[in-house]
Amino acid sequence: MHITFLVESVDESFAKLEAAGVAIKERPRPAVNSEVLDRVAFLRDPDGIVVELAERCGELKDPDFSRS
Q1: How far, in Å, CA of 28 to CA of 30, rounded?
Q2: pLDDT at residue 33, rounded to an integer
Q3: What is the value of pTM for the model shown?
Q4: Which domain does 24 fall in, by range?
Q5: Tell me, what CATH number does 33's domain have?
Q6: What is the predicted pLDDT for the residue at 58?
């Protein structure tokens, strides 16, 4: 089980969380599903649950959610 957060920059978000002492599972890397996601990283919360940081790619990066 894990939870995913979409962030503007995986690298910046990861750096801030790492500096705060959050447990690291996997450092930022290119996403496998590169049609939708650009970069991902994985951390663990205090209860051991995996937290994924995901960054959208291309035109999906800044979606206009006001239309939904």
Answers
A1: 7
A2: 84
A3: 0.83
A4: 2-61
A5: 3.10.180.10
A6: 72
Counting the structural domains of the chain, the total is 1
Q: Please give the Cα distance from 21 to 26 (Å, whole number).
A: 14
Has residue 68 been placed in a domain? no
**pLDDT score for 6:** 94
Show Cβ contacts of residue 31 under 8 Å, excluding neighbours closer than 6 positions. Answer: 37, 38, 39, 40, 54, 55, 57
Give the chain's mean pLDDT.
89
Does residue 67 fall inside a structural domain? no
Q: Is 66 a member of any domain?
A: no
Say if strands 50-56 and 2-6 run parallel, antiparallel, or are unpaired. parallel
